[in-house]
Specification:
By secondary structure, the chain is α/β, with parallel strands linked by helices. It has 13 helices and 10 strands. The longest helix has 21 residues, at 232-252.
């Protein structure tokens, strides 16, 4: 253990190298065989594209088990080919699945048919052990004296093919979880908290595998909706804007807030009117480019590869700093924005 007394060592790559993505049934079945022959707990993690896509499904799942190489699975591609996820469940059996903040990943696992039987959640363990911070980077630094390179947490994980540095980032997320489980299990037992931890892990597993219940009034999730102070007309505007945004976002498979920000909805509602187009080119709002990217300096990526939200995206038809709208009719990102403005 490295209780914060020495400088942690930066690990930039997995010890066994950066794996390729498994996206064919033959490679998936081979992975199941390798993991069935391996032993011990399973380190697991998942990556989504929730900041880019409408849904919250997993676009990459990472596994590591002693005696087998790190596996990066493409669950979307494999599911389309008819992958039998029970094969992987059988390969792992009743061994622990080690996750950090399992509530983020268990719903996605359950959605495709992955069913862990036992759980060790390193975030829950960190809270039980009294750590002051609970992020994976801090916990690995505290217990193992190692910090991980973390550059692509906000990336669009639906992008294909995945660049090497993204695969490296994903593999590092499971690289140290097995060592972390050992160290934290020792401390939980030493502090007399092991039975308590087992109860917490069991509860988190049970809850995480349950179907996600939709909010009965989802538009009330608009950020800062309380700023409308129960103004019925303003609330009606907000509701209609949210409903139209959600419909278009679902149709075009894009994150709703990239189409129109919550701040823009609140602004329009406070003015008790729908946002209107100024000279047919820009939305009268302090929030945004009229091309979709309402809450970011990032613009749409028509004609260009998409990378993480931290990089500079530009629409191929709106490269200047003005808020001009891309008029390309087949732009996946601009069409819903134009439709929203026409509405």
């Amino acid at each position: 253990m490295n209780p914060g007394n020495s400088e942690p060592v930066l690990q930039t790559e997995p010890k066994e190298g950066v794996p390729d993505v498994t996206d064919t049934l033959a490679d998936y079945e081979l992975t199941c065989e390798l993991y069935a022959a391996a032993s011990g707990s399973l380190a697991a993690d998942a990556e989504r594209a929730s900041g880019y896509r409408y849904g919250h499904e997993d676009w990459l799942i990472q596994f590591k088990r002693e005696g087998a190489p790190i596996a990066l699975l493409d669950p979307v591609a494999l599911s389309k080919q008819g992958a039998d996820w029970s094969l992987f469940n059988e390969a792992i059996g009743d061994s622990n699945w080690i996750l950090h903040d399992s509530r983020q990943d268990l719903p996605g696992f359950a959605q495709i048919g992955l069913r862990p039987q036992r759980l060790f959640d390193t975030e829950i363990a960190a809270r039980l052990l009294g750590l002051h911070r609970f992020g994976l980077a801090y916990v690995t630094s505290y217990y193992l004296g190692i910090t991980l390179a973390k550059e692509h947490s906000a990336a669009d994980w639906s992008y294909r093919p995945l660049p090497r540095d993204w695969r490296n980032y994903a593999a590092l997320d499971v690289e140290l979880l097995i060592d972390l489980e050992r160290a934290m299990t020792h401390d939980l037992k030493q502090q007399g908290k092991w039975e308590w931890a087992l109860q917490e892990f069991a509860y988190a597993l049970q809850e995480g595998l349950q179907p996600v219940k939709p909010h009965p009034v989802p538009w009330l999730h608009i950020s800062h909706i309380s700023a409308l102070h129960n103004d019925q007309r303003a609330l009606a505007v907000a509701k209609e804007l949210w409903t139209e945004r959600d419909k278009l976002a679902k149709e075009y498979d894009i994150a709703p807030t990239l189409l129109l920000s919550d701040a823009a909805i609140i602004e329009a509602a406070q003015k008790n009117r729908i946002m209107h187009v100024n000279s047919g080119r820009s939305v009268r709002s302090t929030s945004a480019c009229a091309c979709i990217w309402a809450t970011s300096a990032t613009k749409c990526s028509n004609g260009m590869r998409r990378y993480s939200a931290k990089s500079s995206h530009h629409c191929g038809n709106a490269r200047s700093n003005t808020h001009s709208i891309c008029r390309t009719t087949d732009c996946r990102f601009c069409r819903p924005s134009q439709t929203m403005m026409q509405w």
